[in-house]
Amino acid sequence: MPTPSSPFAALRNDSRQPDQLRPISFTPHFAPNATGSVLVAAGNTRVICSAIIQPDVPRWMKEQKVPGGWLTAEYSMLPYSTLDRKQRDIARGKLDGRSSEIQRLIGRSLRAVVDLRALGANTLWIDCDVLQADGGTRTASITGSCVASALAFEKMIRAGKLSRNPLKGLVAAISVGMVGGVPLLDLAYTEDKDAAVDMNLVMTEAQEFVELQGSGEESVFTDAELASMLALGRKGIRELVAAQKAAIQAGISTLPQ
Hints:
It is a single chain. This protein is globular. It has a single domain (about 10-255), classed as GHMP Kinase, N-terminal domain (Ribosomal Protein S5, domain 2, 2-Layer Sandwich). By secondary structure, the protein is α+β, with helices and mostly antiparallel strands. The chain has helices spanning about 60-65, 90, 95-110, 135-160, 190-195, 225-255; strands at about 25-30, 35-40, 45-55, 70-75, 125-130, 170-180, 180-185, 195-205, 210-215. Helix 3 (about 95-110) packs across helix 4 and helix 4 runs parallel beside helix 6. The protein has a five-stranded mixed sheet. A four-stranded antiparallel sheet has the order 7-6-8-9, with helices on both faces.
């Protein structure tokens, strides 16, 4: 793996080192009508993540008498999020396959760290709206949604609507890939489109895998390359979790008393 002083950093348009995240920030309470929300910025990618808790569960849970609550997610890219206007799903009359796959991934990722029994007979709706896309919108959505959920749960606890926190731990996601034969962390769009191998990692703060999505783009990869990408991913997840914890602490401190 390239060292911090490696000339391979010249491969990156933003002059980052191969193992360096893009600048990450969270703006809490961005959507005031949501139970919890953040604007997450990862480089030039920006996503509004909101968490809304409503007192109801899906009909199938009622019919099957499944205890606890439910968590589901929706994801969309706004028309101005890309260089060329992206048509709204409603204009086509259906959700495109990519958006459907991503929102399912977001839901799976959050359900891995949320105790649905502790949620009670409520549904947690996760909504991720991409304002600006420069690679990593799905990973930013997962990382931001976890922060939004933490803020939503704290708000519900303070209001006496939850007896305990359903969040068992944090979950974050990051992309890695092979570009020009070099393993890179947190791919921007220009890197992602040129990557020979593209991979997304979803992991808990305990460094446990929730999901691993990886494929060669008209290419193959070796055990050694996989190991190098996983090492980069674990490093990125540790840094993201630290940023999430700081954002949650700051967001909780500014919740209305």
